[in-house]
Write a structure and sequence with these properties.
By secondary structure, this protein is an alpha/beta fold. It contains 18 helices and 13 strands. The protein has a six-stranded mixed sheet with strand order 1-6-5-2-3-4, sandwiched between helices. Strand 9 and strand 10 form a beta hairpin. Helix 12 packs across helix 16 and helix 17 packs across helix 18. The longest helix is centred in the middle third of the chain and has 17 residues. It is globular and about 70 Å long. The termini are far apart. The model has no long low-confidence stretch (mean pLDDT 86).
């Protein structure tokens, strides 16, 4: 693919959805030179789901891919065993090889919703980190000083508070930095919370006689309730594989102060158009609900196509705004007459786990034939005609006795 050196397109890649570029002038010159750059983005398979928060750097990666550069999607199967200590006040429980393999399974497929995976170089850092013997590991560690590592604010804080900081966590940035050496990366992308680790890549590349990579940090996307960053563990996320109706509905639940940020980081609307929307919102010229409907439509369109985005919008209007039961409801057969409500929610996929099912019930988010169920031990009597199980305002299934 031909390398695109159009200055306007390069400037958009270096500015939109970007918090910081190190070193910006150097990277701009490299992009304008026409040389094909190796652009790396790494992710540890600590969960099985990629969400809109992950999509922010992935969409930036797509920008580099569209300019013709070689994108590297690095799966940190080795480093996941250790756990990234970034932002943590306690040691992360190590993951098993089985857990890592299960989480890795669909990562590339989910990333393919954004990237052209036929042109992506998919790598795993176990390829080189597994091969380092003890002597080589010591030699690698010798290229980093204690003073450098102690520049990390979270490391300082944990030591100050007399909290455990394991040696393996201490060495995590070193291993992430060595990934850049092994891949000969020209550019690395990551969230703002990864800045220290990204800079470690520059440091190690210098020590190994390579030209240091330039760094692009992307903002951390806030979750649905605002404040905390989007995270599956906080249940404030929108998965890339979310059903269109659920994705649309979740976006409609955003707080108004996140509308512009989501338009900027999660859609393909032009910067000028987003600026216009921002002015209209600030001047109270438009109802925030209408803007969220447009936002939801634009996001669903990216991951599911325009036809399904239209259907999701119609579904939302019918079930939430008009409070009607949807015309099309999935029928699920269940083999027993009396079903425990928690097990029923998991089996019908209205909840991902028993703990989530219990939380939904206790919060009053589950209805059976229109009646809220608040007892996690409730037994639901099924019939051949079926019962209507509803999660929140948008999730409906009819469960029929098999």
């Amino acid at each position: 693919m031909k390398i695109i050196t159009d200055k306007q397109k390069i400037e958009e890649v270096l500015s939109r959805g970007v918090d910081e570029v190190l070193v910006k002038e150097n990277l701009r010159k490299r992009l304008e030179s026409g040389k094909k750059l190796r652009v790396k983005f790494g992710i540890d398979p600590t969960g099985s789901v990629l969400h809109l928060g992950h999509a922010v750097p992935l969409r930036k990666l797509k920008g580099f891919q569209d300019l013709g550069h070689q994108v590297i999607f690095l799966i940190g199967d080795f480093t996941a065993k250790i756990g990234d200590p970034t932002g943590r006040s306690q040691t992360r429980k190590p993951m098993t090889a089985k857990e890592i393999k299960a989480n890795m399974k669909s990562y590339a497929k989910q990333a393919g919703l954004i990237l052209d995976m036929k042109k992506v170089e998919i790598r795993h850092n176990s390829e080189w980190l597994d091969k380092l013997d003890f002597q080589e590991s010591i030699m690698l560690a010798s290229k980093i000083t204690y003073a450098q590592m102690m520049q990390r604010a979270d490391f300082k804080e944990r030591i100050k508070n007399d909290q455990d900081l394991s040696l393996q966590e201490f060495l995590y940035p070193m291993m992430q930095g060595y990934d850049s050496v092994a891949l000969k990366a020209d550019v690395e992308l990551g969230g703002t919370d990864q800045k220290f680790n990204l800079l470690m890549g520059r440091q190690l590349q210098k020590r190994y006689g390579q030209e240091p990579q330039d760094i692009v940090t992307c903002p951390l996307l806030e979750g649905l309730s605002g404040g905390d960053k989007m995270s599956k563990s906080l249940d404030n996320y929108i998965a890339l594989t979310e059903k269109p109706e659920e994705m649309y509905g979740k976006i409609m639940s955003l707080t108004d102060n996140l509308i512009i940020r989501y338009f900027s980081l999660c859609t393909d609307l032009a910067v000028e158009e987003i600026g216009k929307i921002e002015r209209e919102l600030a001047g109270s010229q438009v109802n925030p609900r209408n803007l969220k409907m447009r936002l939801a439509f634009e996001v669903v369109k990216i991951y599911h196509g325009e036809r399904k985005a239209v259907a999701a919008q119609e579904y939302f209007i019918k079930t939430v705004q008009k409070k009607e039961t949807p015309d099309k409801i999935s029928n699920i057969q269940y083999p027993i007459s009396n079903a425990n409500i928690v097990e029923l929610l998991v089996e019908t996929k209205l909840a991902e786990s028993k703990s989530e099912a219990k939380r939904l019930i206790e919060q009053g988010g589950i209805k059976i034939d229109g009646v809220a169920i608040k007892d996690i031990n409730a037994s639901i009597e099924l019939t051949e005609a079926g019962v209507l199980v509803q999660r929140g305002k948008r999730g409906f299934v009819r469960v029929i006795k098999k």
